[in-house]
Amino acid sequence: MPPLGARMIAMIPPNRPNLIKLSAVACLTLCVLGCTTTTIELIPPDMSPRPVRSLARWGVEMDGRRVGSLVLIRVEDRDHPEQFYVVKHADGQTAGKIDLQGRAWREEPFRDRPVLVAMDTMAQDLMVLLELPRQPAIVLLEADD
Question: Do the Cβ atoms of 105 and 97 come closer than 8 Å?
Fold first, then answer.
């Protein structure tokens, strides 16, 4: 007890935020933000048909007999036109393709993309794709002028 004549000072609590209210607001904010989702819509690539032109055709020969063929193809896509060579075995089965930079690609089962198998001259790439023992001769059959 204070002495008799002393004035009593009222106890004023310090100015602190109410922690219960603050934690409730923080919890509600986290709940609302946790329920918010963002969806990203992926636009599928355009898979519509494109015009394809055969520009030239060569025969691939070894020891005087035809072992395959080579066809220069142009895919006429207005956004991404593309030219490449299609390599086929003598029976017509596709062996792979060769791009204009000289890279030879082969489709393999259970792969999403073609596999790069060679990157050399045209004759060397044909040897790899057609699985020949040596470089073949390339003979022009027809050209589109």
Answer: yes
Angle CA 131–135–136, to nearest 5 = 90
Q: What is the DSSP string of 24-65?
A: HHHHHHHHHHHH-----PPPPP------EEEEEEEEEEETTE
CB 50 within 8 A of CB 76: yes
- Domain positions in the chain are 52-143
What is the largest distance, in Å, between two alpha-carbon atoms of the chain? 130
Using one digit for the tens of pLDDT, what is the confidence trace for 80-127? 889 999 999 999 999 999 999 999 999 888 998 999 999 999 999 999
State the pLDDT confidence band at 135, using cuts at 50, 70 and 90. very high
